[in-house]
């Protein structure tokens, strides 16, 4: 299959739904053999089924990205079954709740474990394969919450700030080895992850929360999973050959105000 990722093996974490699901399907349409990695096995299989029905190549791999041994084992399996990983979209993440006054310690730990440690563990496993083959692209999922303060989101903001710092650090280490590392900072995209947060923002009213959030976006609407997936595709492809250490805000102008 021809395409911008033809001949590449791509891993999409959190590929069972939301932005990751859209990216996994797009990467497969662009010719990649895709490993859909998710802690939710049924969701990963659903994405894989859709890719295969459309004529693409994909496997589902299940792991909790906070577990180093599980992550290393699935990346070994991906290398055995599909070949050396050339593209990683490090997308899986979780939200947090609360300001610094009322955030719970468990929630903080979970958010840091998935968003920061999980991103690091997957990047490490992928980078080891990429360094051996002398080429590769890693795209880490940040958020506008890394760039501006978002109310009642203390742990999440801190975790995504760490992802941006990790991206810059990795880009410096890996550029001489032929591996590019960039981050996307999406604005709000309507996905299952966001529903509880939007409902809370609206005082229990999802529609009100949606309207309040949309008002923060100069473009006058929220983003779509496909729009973020397109940025991930560009950064993963050779079209972005001179981009490394870049932090791309895909946010409808939200952080430009
Ligand atoms: N939706 C937004 O508005 C928005 C905005 C900015 C950034 N983001 C970021 O984009 C990414 C995807 O968000 P989404 O809205 O598509 O979320 P989502 O909840 O729809 O999808 C996240 C996926 O990650 C998986 N996942 C969660 N924890 C995992 C773990 N420990 N191990 C493996 N997989 C795990 C889930 O099972 C799920 O399939 C996240 O990193 C999120 O922080 C989202």
TrEMBL record:
One of its GO terms (molecular function) is oxidoreductase activity. It comes from the Bacteria. Keywords: Oxidoreductase. CDD domains: SDR_c. Its EC number is 1.-.-.-. Residues 8-187 form the Ketoreductase domain. PANTHER family: SHORT-CHAIN DEHYDROGENASES/REDUCTASES FAMILY MEMBER. Belongs to the short-chain dehydrogenases/reductases (SDR) family. NCBIfam families: PRK07231.1 (NF005559). This is SDR family oxidoreductase.
């Amino acid at each position: 299959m021809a395409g911008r990722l033809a001949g590449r093996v791509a891993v999409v974490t959190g590929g069972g739904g939301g932005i990751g699901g859209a990216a996994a399907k797009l990467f497969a349409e662009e010719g990649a053999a895709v490993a859909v990695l998710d802690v939710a096995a049924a969701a990963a299989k659903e994405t894989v089924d859709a890719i295969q029905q459309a004529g693409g190549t994909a496997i589902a791999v299940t792991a909790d990205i906070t577990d180093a041994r599980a992550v290393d084992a699935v990346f070994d399996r991906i290398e055995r079954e599909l070949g050396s990983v050339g593209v990683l979209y490090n997308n899986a993440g979780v939200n947090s709740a609360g300001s610094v006054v009322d955030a719970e310690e468990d929630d903080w730990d979970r958010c840091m474990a998935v968003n920061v440690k999980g991103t690091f563990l997957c990047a490490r496993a992928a980078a080891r394969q990429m360094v051996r083959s002398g080429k590769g692209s890693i795209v880490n999922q940040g958020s506008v919450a890394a760039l501006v303060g978002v109310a009642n989101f203390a742990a999440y903001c801190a975790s995504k700030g760490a992802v941006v710092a990790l991206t810059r650090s990795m880009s410096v280490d890996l550029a001489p080895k032929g591996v590019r590392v960039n981050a996307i900072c999406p604005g709000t995209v309507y996905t299952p992850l966001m529903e509880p947060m939007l409902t809370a923002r609206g005082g229990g009213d999802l529609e009100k929360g949606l309207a309040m959030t949309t008002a923060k976006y100069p473009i006058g609407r929220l983003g779509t999973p496909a729009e973020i997936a397109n940025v991930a595709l560009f950064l993963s492809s050779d079209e972005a050959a001179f981009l490394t250490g870049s932090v791309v805000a895909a946010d409808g102008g939200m952080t430009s105000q």
